[in-house]
Amino acid sequence: MSGENAGGTSPDTARIAPDSHATTTGMTGHGYYDANSRTQWNAIEAVLPLLDHAAATFPLKGDGVITFADYGCSEGRNSVAVMERALRTALPRTPLPVQTVHSDLPTNDFGTLFQNLRPHGQSVFGSGRVFSSAVGGSMYDQLRPDRSVHLATTFNAIGFLSRRPVETLPGYIQPNGPSAIRGNGFVSEEETAAFRAQARRDVEAFLKVRARELVPGGQLLVQVFGATDEAKTCDGIYDLLNDAVLGFVETGEIDRETYDRYYQPVYMRRLEELTGPALDPGSETADLFELNQARDYEITVPFVEQYKEDGDLDTYATAYVHFFRAFTEAVLTNALPDTPERGGLVDRVYERADEILRAAPDLYPFRYLAVAMLLTRKP
User: Fold this and answer.
1) Three-state DSSP state, 97
2) Is 218 in a helix, a strand, or coil?
3) Within its chain, how far is the Cα of 45 from the centroid?
4) Residue-wise over 222-239: b if at least 16 C-beta within 10 A, else e?
5) CA angle, corner 82, sides to 126 and 70, nearest 5?
6) Contact call for residues 368 and 233 (beta carbons, < 8 A)
7) What is the rounded end-to-end Cα distance, in angstroms, of the chain?
8) CB burial class (10 A; 0-12, 13-18, 19+) of residue 213?
């Protein structure tokens, strides 16, 4: 069974408070995110040439250990693939040992990560010079010693905000607002401005701590889902989740106050919003990095392309809902009252989303846009 179609009802997500600098407890675990993250891999694959450049140009030192760090590794399937790609270029450049560091929130499913790193009791990287470790913590905090990292990466994770800039978002469940096609809600200009400012502060915080961790000349590759004048990656998927949740508001199973307080704390940045903190003269982080390359782009979505080919609505709806459940379930769960019925209610929300999509697939088209930048740490 392919990744986008794998899995049924997901296992329980973490039911504990997130890290102080996080607004989620992480992706759905026990292999569920790995099984439903093929689309994210396509977005990563599009910027692998930037990774190749970074792996070929990070500075080598005379002794010690070379360190690669990936922030927001989740269960590790994509993180391992990224490291494998970087190691192909890096290992021939140096006789030194290389440490791969895979980091995510303390509530992440590290058990599955470790299984991905050491299948059959041996390193997945197949080299006696490669050693792996994991670090639990927010990517907005310093997680490695000063000047200890040579190549740092993050894929999609920086789209999750470090804090909730507003207490309620009563018009919609996502700060970029509904799509023009569905138009099933609203976000005010003031609310949008609060999220835009928080997203900028998060990039600045991330760059500050990575600047401390990176050696001079160290490389930093940042990629995240995003937006252009044409579309936003949130279009479709959050319209569908919003409609599903509102169905339970109408029946009274989710009260209006809970709906008003609940929103998915992710922000879709334009390219200039990602690169601004590294370039704008007024930014506190403008003198820390040199911008090597930056781009926005769109990738194909496997389950969308398959649906175009075969018209199989059942398979499409299942894959579509599994895809966004993998990264939205934890936030939805923690937004609902902690009752014995909560898990069942969450299941029914996603079941309702599946039913809505099957009934009107044209109302929820999904496109995946992304932005990326490659930076070099200045001396």
Assistant:
1) coil
2) strand
3) 14
4) bbbbbbbeebbbbbbbbb
5) 105
6) yes
7) 48
8) buried
Q: Which residue shows structure tokens 């200045």? A: 378
Q: How far apart are CA 319 and CA 321, in angstroms?
A: 6
The closest of 125, 164, 132, 113 to 331, measured between CA atoms, is 164
CA-nearest of 228, 167, 36 to 175 is 167
3: left (phi over 0), alpha (psi -120 to 50) or beta: alpha
Q: Which amino acid is residue 51, in one-letter code?
A: L
Q: How far apart are CA 265 and CA 176, in angstroms?
A: 10
Q: Name the token pair of 215.
A: 């050696």
| Count of residues in the chain | 379
- Output phi, psi for 339, to 5 deg: -125, 165
- Write the DSSP assignment of 52-94 as a string of letters: HHHHHHSPP-SSS-EEEEEE--TTSHHHHHHHHHHHHHHGGG-
Predicted TM-score (pTM) of this structure:
0.93
For residue range 236-280, what is the model confidence (pLDDT) as tens digits?
999 999 999 999 999 999 999 999 999 999 999 999 999 999 999
One-letter-per-residue 3-state SS of 131-148: EEEEEECCCCCCCCCCCC
> Based on the structure, what is the number of domains in the chain?
1
CATH code at position 62: 3.40.50.150
Residue-wise pLDDT for 163-222, tens only, equals 999 999 999 999 999 999 999 999 999 999 999 999 999 999 999 999 999 999 999 999
Range of the structural domain that residue 240 is part of: 3-377
Q: Which helix (H) or strand (E) holds 27?
A: none
Amino acid at 271: L
Q: What tokens does 155 get? A: 């894929």
**Distance, CA of 241 to CA of 324 (rounded, Å):** 9
Residues 18 and 21: their CA atoms lie apart, in Å, by 8
Beta strands in the chain (DSSP E): 66-71, 98-104, 130-136, 149-155, 214-225, 289-299, 368-377
By the 10 Å C-beta count (0-12 exposed, 13-18 middle, 19+ buried), 323 is classed as: buried
**Comparing C-alpha atoms, which of 212, 240, 202, 268 is closest to residue 325?**
240
Sign of the CA dihedral 287, 292, 294, 299? Answer: negative
For 113, 168, 240, 295, 328, the CA distances from 108, given in Å and listed in that order, are 9, 26, 26, 29, 14
